[in-house]
Structures are given as C-alpha cells and as structure tokens.
Design brief:
The protein is of the alpha+beta class. It has a single domain, classed as NADH Oxidase (3-Layer(aba) Sandwich), CATH 3.40.109. 40% of the residues lie in helices and 17% in strands. The relative contact order is 0.22. The structure holds flavin mononucleotide. This is Nitroreductase.
Length: 196
C-alpha cells in the first residue's frame, strides 16, 4: 500500500469483527511504529494491551469511572443496570484495547516533546495497522483523566500520563471519509510578497 493511499484511506473504526488479531501481527505493528520521531531518543510510549479475559477487569474499572462521573445519574436501578450491561458488552466485543501511556517529565517542554512523540507513534500504529487490514479507533475518553481510574489499574497518576486507548480489531464496517478542508484555507505563505 502506497503511503498516500494509506493516509487517505485509513478510517477510524467503530465496529469490529469478533476475530482476534494475531499476537505476532500486533507486536509487529507496535514494534515498527517505534520508528516515530522522538526527542532525545526517549521513546516515551508504553503499551498495555487488554485482550481475552483481561478485558473483564478493564471494562469494570471503566464502568466505575463512568459511574463516578455521573454518567448514570438520574436513571433508576433497572435502567442503570441495562446501560452498564450495554457498555460492558460493547467494550468486551472489541477484540483489543491498547492503553498507550507515558511517564510524565517534570519539565513541561520535555513533557510536550514526549506527548508529541507518543502521538506520532500512535499515528504510525494506525497506519501500519491499516496496511495489515486492522482497524483502530484512537480514543481519549474522560476516564483517562480520572485519577481513581489510573489508580484502579495500578498507575500512579502523578507519575504516568494515560494518553489514549486504541481500540483494535478487524473492521466490520468502514465509515465514509469525512472531507478535509482545502489546504489553501490553512496554509499561510510568508515569502516576502504578503500584504502588510
Ligand atoms: C487525539 C484524538 C482523540 C480522539 N478521540 C476519539 C474518541 O474519544 N472517540 C472517537 O470516536 N473518536 C476519537 N478520535 C477519532 C476522530 O474522531 C477521527 O479521527 C475523526 O473523526 C476523523 O475520522 P477518520 O479518522 O476516519 O478520518 C480521536 C482522534 C484523535 C486524534
């Protein structure tokens, strides 16, 4: 697959087939993505991959975070139970959840460099996965900012920044592309001929 074709055709995937992606394929994607640029060669990305039975505990702490954030407020017990079961099923039906995290540098400039490098890494994951027929959804759900969620999955939130959870699996449905803005609306040339 050509680079431009991969960039243009990749879509965020919301619906997945049941089938698991081979561990080897996933490992290759995560390994090759490390060619992302990163300042000081810190390679700041870390990955925790929830899959198989590991998804159960993950879904449970996600649910508890939603509850703390008032997601179920105002619903009676039965409706709350149904909503929770729906979310749980939804999460368990996604074959892989890759939590991407990094250590927080106390120096804000270095923190930003590390965050940028992790985002470059994530885009590499998205493109390499796409080339392998694997769909990804880059998510930044509110629980990633919930300290109690961090603690519940064993992270000291002062020390680690949870960047994203990448949902991964073979796409059941590929959404239509969303149009992009023509670049002349965003590219501002300063070549000495601009009007002051
Ligand atoms: C930092 C970041 C966070 C995102 N978080 C979410 C998310 O929480 N939920 C979601 O459905 N999509 C999320 N997306 C995916 C975007 O919605 C998606 O890229 C956009 O709609 C364009 O669609 P495309 O990727 O198919 O071109 C996120 C993307 C980025 C870069």
């Amino acid at each position: 697959m050509e680079l431009l074709e991969a960039i243009r055709s990749r879509r965020s995937i919301h619906e997945y087939k049941e089938e698991q992606v081979d561990q080897e394929v996933l490992e290759r994607i995560f390994a090759e993505s490390a060619w992302a640029p990163n300042h000081r060669m810190k390679e700041p990305w870390q990955i925790r991959l929830y899959q198989d039975k590991g998804k159960e505990a993950y879904a449970q702490v996600v649910m508890e975070s939603y509850q703390r954030q008032g997601f179920f407020d105002g619903y009676d017990e039965e409706k709350t139970k149904r909503l929770q079961e729906g979310i749980r099923e939804f999460l368990l039906n996604i074959p892989h959840h890759a939590l991407i995290y990094m250590e927080r540098d106390e120096d804000i400039r270095k923190y930003e460099e590390d965050y940028a490098a992790v985002c470059a890494y994530i885009q590499n994951v998205q493109l390499l996965a796409w080339k392998a027929g694997v769909g990804v959804l880059w998510t930044t759900s509110p629980y990633l900012h919930d300290e109690q969620f961090s603690e519940a999955i064993g992270f000291d939130s002062q020390r680690f920044k949870l960047v994203s959870v990448l949902q991964m699996g073979y796409p059941k449905r590929i959404p239509n592309p969303k149009v992009r803005t023509p670049i002349h609306q965003k590219l501002h040339l300063y070549d000495g001929n601009e009007k002051s």
